[in-house]
Design brief:
Order of helices and strands: HH
Mean pLDDT: 80
Shape: rod-shaped
Low-confidence stretches: 1-13
Distance between the termini: 158 Å
Length: about 120
């Protein structure tokens, strides 16, 4: 006769440690080992965390407003600078013309002084 490697259901012995309560304890123990323990947070801890989050939110809002204001000021400054560029170019060309005129006047005055020196001799 050949014996089976697997015991039949009738041949399975029941042991007292296999009782339903022990099985539940073993399963619960395995779950405790497998599952990470829950982090307990007290009401005070939660209130403190909530306060810090609210301060962070307020700070972020203030920084965003400050950034928007700074960007607006920068845009106005760039616009004002853009308006001044033609004026600056005009003033530079006037300065160049005035320097040329000054050189001409200087040359004429030097010539007149030379003529006056020639008369005194």
């Amino acid at each position: 006769m050949t014996e089976s490697l697997w015991p039949s259901e009738a041949a399975v012995e029941t042991r007292p440690e296999d009782s339903e309560a022990n099985v539940e304890e073993n399963v619960a123990g395995e779950e405790a080992v497998q599952e990470p323990r829950a982090l307990t947070v007290t009401v005070n801890d939660f209130a403190g965390l909530e306060e810090r989050v609210m301060r962070a939110v307020t700070l972020v809002k203030q920084e965003r407003q400050a950034r928007a204001a700074a960007e607006e000021r920068a845009e106005r400054a760039e616009s004002a600078l853009g308006e001044q560029v033609p004026r600056i170019e005009q003033m530079q060309s006037e300065l160049t013309a005035l320097r040329a005129e000054r050189d001409q006047v200087k040359t004429r005055v030097e010539r007149l002084l030379q003529q006056l020196d020639a008369l005194e001799l």
